[in-house]
Input
Amino acid sequence: MIFLLSRHRCPECFFVSMVVACRLRFVNLVTQLWARYRNSMVDLKSEEFRALWEPRDNPATGVWRVRRRLAAAMRLVIERLTTSDAPEEELAVVAARLEDYADRLADHPQRDRYDGFAEAAVADPAAAKKSMGGAHFDFSPLIGQSNPLAPPIVITSDEQGVRGEATFGSAYEGPPGCVHGGCIAAAFDEVLGYTQTFTGQPGMTGTLETLYRSPTPLH
Output
Protein backbone atom coordinates (compact mmCIF):
# COMPACT_ATOMS: atom_id res chain seq x y z
CA MET A 1 0.00 0.00 0.00
CA ILE A 2 1.29 3.46 -0.92
CA PHE A 3 0.55 6.52 1.18
CA LEU A 4 0.67 10.00 -0.35
CA LEU A 5 1.67 12.83 1.96
CA SER A 6 -0.87 15.61 1.81
CA ARG A 7 -0.07 19.27 2.30
CA HIS A 8 -3.38 19.66 4.05
CA ARG A 9 -3.47 19.12 7.78
CA CYS A 10 -7.09 18.01 8.07
CA PRO A 11 -7.69 14.24 8.57
CA GLU A 12 -10.30 14.21 5.79
CA CYS A 13 -7.79 15.44 3.21
CA PHE A 14 -5.23 12.86 4.28
CA PHE A 15 -7.85 10.13 4.00
CA VAL A 16 -8.74 11.22 0.45
CA SER A 17 -5.06 11.20 -0.51
CA MET A 18 -4.65 7.71 0.92
CA VAL A 19 -7.69 6.41 -1.00
CA VAL A 20 -6.39 7.91 -4.25
CA ALA A 21 -3.01 6.25 -3.68
CA CYS A 22 -4.62 2.87 -3.07
CA ARG A 23 -6.71 3.19 -6.22
CA LEU A 24 -3.66 4.13 -8.29
CA ARG A 25 -1.79 1.12 -6.94
CA PHE A 26 -4.72 -1.15 -7.79
CA VAL A 27 -5.04 0.26 -11.31
CA ASN A 28 -1.32 -0.26 -11.91
CA LEU A 29 -1.53 -3.85 -10.70
CA VAL A 30 -4.51 -4.63 -12.94
CA THR A 31 -2.75 -2.99 -15.90
CA GLN A 32 0.34 -5.15 -15.39
CA LEU A 33 -1.70 -8.33 -15.05
CA TRP A 34 -3.75 -7.48 -18.12
CA ALA A 35 -0.60 -6.86 -20.17
CA ARG A 36 0.79 -10.25 -19.12
CA TYR A 37 -2.52 -11.85 -20.02
CA ARG A 38 -2.78 -10.26 -23.47
CA ASN A 39 0.82 -11.21 -24.28
CA SER A 40 0.13 -14.88 -23.57
CA MET A 41 0.57 -17.33 -26.43
CA VAL A 42 -2.20 -19.61 -25.16
CA ASP A 43 -5.47 -19.63 -27.09
CA LEU A 44 -8.20 -18.84 -24.54
CA LYS A 45 -10.65 -21.00 -26.47
CA SER A 46 -8.33 -23.98 -26.80
CA GLU A 47 -8.80 -27.35 -25.12
CA GLU A 48 -5.42 -26.80 -23.46
CA PHE A 49 -6.66 -23.68 -21.71
CA ARG A 50 -9.96 -25.33 -20.81
CA ALA A 51 -8.05 -28.16 -19.12
CA LEU A 52 -6.55 -25.65 -16.66
CA TRP A 53 -10.04 -24.75 -15.48
CA GLU A 54 -11.37 -28.30 -15.63
CA PRO A 55 -8.76 -30.43 -13.80
CA ARG A 56 -10.95 -33.51 -13.89
CA ASP A 57 -9.37 -34.32 -17.25
CA ASN A 58 -5.96 -32.99 -16.21
CA PRO A 59 -4.62 -35.33 -13.47
CA ALA A 60 -1.64 -34.10 -11.49
CA THR A 61 1.74 -35.80 -11.29
CA GLY A 62 4.87 -35.33 -9.21
CA VAL A 63 4.89 -32.47 -6.74
CA TRP A 64 1.44 -31.27 -7.84
CA ARG A 65 -0.10 -34.63 -7.03
CA VAL A 66 1.37 -34.42 -3.52
CA ARG A 67 0.27 -30.79 -3.13
CA ARG A 68 -3.29 -31.80 -3.90
CA ARG A 69 -3.05 -34.72 -1.49
CA LEU A 70 -1.82 -32.41 1.29
CA ALA A 71 -4.54 -29.85 0.57
CA ALA A 72 -7.19 -32.58 0.69
CA ALA A 73 -5.87 -33.75 4.07
CA MET A 74 -5.90 -30.18 5.42
CA ARG A 75 -9.42 -29.71 4.09
CA LEU A 76 -10.49 -32.82 6.00
CA VAL A 77 -8.85 -31.53 9.19
CA ILE A 78 -10.74 -28.24 8.86
CA GLU A 79 -14.02 -30.08 8.31
CA ARG A 80 -13.55 -32.32 11.32
CA LEU A 81 -12.34 -29.49 13.54
CA THR A 82 -15.58 -27.59 12.99
CA THR A 83 -17.68 -30.58 14.05
CA SER A 84 -15.50 -32.41 16.58
CA ASP A 85 -16.18 -32.55 20.31
CA ALA A 86 -12.71 -33.92 21.05
CA PRO A 87 -11.37 -33.12 24.54
CA GLU A 88 -8.92 -30.31 25.19
CA GLU A 89 -5.96 -32.70 25.52
CA GLU A 90 -6.55 -34.25 22.09
CA LEU A 91 -7.01 -30.86 20.44
CA ALA A 92 -3.74 -29.69 22.01
CA VAL A 93 -1.88 -32.69 20.55
CA VAL A 94 -3.28 -32.06 17.08
CA ALA A 95 -2.49 -28.33 17.31
CA ALA A 96 1.12 -29.05 18.29
CA ARG A 97 1.57 -31.40 15.35
CA LEU A 98 0.09 -28.94 12.89
CA GLU A 99 2.34 -26.18 14.23
CA ASP A 100 5.31 -28.47 13.70
CA TYR A 101 4.25 -29.17 10.12
CA ALA A 102 3.84 -25.45 9.49
CA ASP A 103 7.38 -24.85 10.75
CA ARG A 104 8.71 -27.57 8.44
CA LEU A 105 7.11 -25.92 5.41
CA ALA A 106 8.51 -22.55 6.50
CA ASP A 107 12.03 -23.97 6.21
CA HIS A 108 11.64 -24.17 2.43
CA PRO A 109 11.74 -21.26 -0.06
CA GLN A 110 8.47 -19.38 -0.44
CA ARG A 111 7.25 -18.59 -3.93
CA ASP A 112 6.12 -15.11 -4.94
CA ARG A 113 2.37 -14.74 -4.46
CA TYR A 114 2.29 -12.22 -7.31
CA ASP A 115 3.50 -14.89 -9.71
CA GLY A 116 0.97 -17.29 -8.25
CA PHE A 117 -1.98 -14.90 -8.45
CA ALA A 118 -4.97 -17.11 -7.76
CA GLU A 119 -7.79 -15.21 -9.43
CA ALA A 120 -8.23 -17.22 -12.59
CA ALA A 121 -9.85 -14.45 -14.61
CA VAL A 122 -6.56 -12.53 -14.79
CA ALA A 123 -4.08 -15.39 -14.40
CA ASP A 124 -1.26 -15.75 -16.91
CA PRO A 125 -2.01 -18.85 -19.03
CA ALA A 126 1.56 -19.01 -20.38
CA ALA A 127 2.96 -19.35 -16.87
CA ALA A 128 0.21 -21.75 -15.87
CA LYS A 129 1.00 -23.91 -18.88
CA LYS A 130 4.49 -24.58 -17.50
CA SER A 131 3.22 -26.16 -14.28
CA MET A 132 1.10 -29.24 -13.74
CA GLY A 133 -2.50 -28.11 -13.51
CA GLY A 134 -1.54 -24.44 -13.70
CA ALA A 135 -0.35 -22.83 -10.48
CA HIS A 136 -2.74 -19.91 -10.84
CA PHE A 137 -5.68 -22.24 -11.06
CA ASP A 138 -4.52 -24.91 -8.64
CA PHE A 139 -4.09 -22.37 -5.83
CA SER A 140 -7.42 -20.64 -6.45
CA PRO A 141 -9.43 -20.26 -3.21
CA LEU A 142 -12.47 -21.61 -5.05
CA ILE A 143 -11.41 -24.17 -7.67
CA GLY A 144 -7.84 -24.85 -6.54
CA GLN A 145 -7.23 -28.48 -5.66
CA SER A 146 -3.95 -27.42 -4.02
CA ASN A 147 -5.68 -24.84 -1.82
CA PRO A 148 -7.28 -26.26 1.36
CA LEU A 149 -9.61 -23.25 1.54
CA ALA A 150 -11.29 -24.28 -1.73
CA PRO A 151 -14.31 -26.65 -1.55
CA PRO A 152 -13.12 -27.12 -4.42
CA ILE A 153 -15.58 -26.22 -7.17
CA VAL A 154 -15.38 -28.59 -10.16
CA ILE A 155 -16.12 -26.76 -13.41
CA THR A 156 -17.16 -28.54 -16.59
CA SER A 157 -18.37 -27.21 -19.92
CA ASP A 158 -19.93 -28.49 -23.11
CA GLU A 159 -22.08 -27.21 -25.95
CA GLN A 160 -24.95 -26.75 -23.49
CA GLY A 161 -23.06 -24.37 -21.22
CA VAL A 162 -20.90 -24.23 -18.09
CA ARG A 163 -21.54 -26.11 -14.85
CA GLY A 164 -19.92 -25.72 -11.44
CA GLU A 165 -20.31 -28.41 -8.78
CA ALA A 166 -19.11 -28.31 -5.17
CA THR A 167 -19.86 -29.79 -1.78
CA PHE A 168 -19.72 -27.14 0.93
CA GLY A 169 -18.94 -28.74 4.28
CA SER A 170 -19.40 -27.49 7.82
CA ALA A 171 -16.49 -25.04 7.50
CA TYR A 172 -18.66 -22.95 5.15
CA GLU A 173 -21.70 -22.80 7.41
CA GLY A 174 -23.62 -19.55 7.76
CA PRO A 175 -27.18 -20.03 9.00
CA PRO A 176 -27.52 -23.31 10.94
CA GLY A 177 -27.19 -26.21 8.52
CA CYS A 178 -26.81 -23.93 5.50
CA VAL A 179 -23.98 -22.54 3.38
CA HIS A 180 -22.89 -18.97 4.09
CA GLY A 181 -24.36 -16.62 1.48
CA GLY A 182 -20.96 -15.08 0.75
CA CYS A 183 -19.63 -18.49 -0.29
CA ILE A 184 -22.53 -18.90 -2.71
CA ALA A 185 -21.85 -15.50 -4.28
CA ALA A 186 -18.14 -16.30 -4.57
CA ALA A 187 -18.96 -19.58 -6.31
CA PHE A 188 -21.12 -17.76 -8.85
CA ASP A 189 -18.32 -15.24 -9.37
CA GLU A 190 -15.83 -18.01 -10.18
CA VAL A 191 -18.10 -19.88 -12.57
CA LEU A 192 -19.12 -16.67 -14.34
CA GLY A 193 -15.44 -15.72 -14.55
CA TYR A 194 -14.73 -18.96 -16.37
CA THR A 195 -17.69 -18.44 -18.68
CA GLN A 196 -16.48 -14.98 -19.69
CA THR A 197 -12.84 -16.04 -20.04
CA PHE A 198 -13.70 -18.93 -22.31
CA THR A 199 -15.34 -16.52 -24.76
CA GLY A 200 -11.89 -15.07 -25.44
CA GLN A 201 -12.74 -11.77 -23.71
CA PRO A 202 -11.53 -12.17 -20.09
CA GLY A 203 -12.10 -9.54 -17.43
CA MET A 204 -12.63 -8.85 -13.75
CA THR A 205 -15.94 -8.67 -11.91
CA GLY A 206 -17.37 -5.16 -11.77
CA THR A 207 -20.77 -5.87 -10.24
CA LEU A 208 -22.23 -9.12 -8.96
CA GLU A 209 -25.83 -9.20 -7.77
CA THR A 210 -27.10 -12.40 -6.17
CA LEU A 211 -30.77 -13.06 -5.40
CA TYR A 212 -31.15 -15.76 -2.74
CA ARG A 213 -34.44 -17.59 -3.24
CA SER A 214 -33.86 -20.19 -0.52
CA PRO A 215 -31.07 -21.37 1.83
CA THR A 216 -28.49 -23.79 0.43
CA PRO A 217 -28.01 -26.83 2.69
CA LEU A 218 -24.54 -28.04 3.66
CA HIS A 219 -23.11 -31.23 2.21
Summary: Strands lie at 154-158, 161-165. The mean pLDDT is 76. Residues 1 and 90 are 41 Å apart (CA to CA).
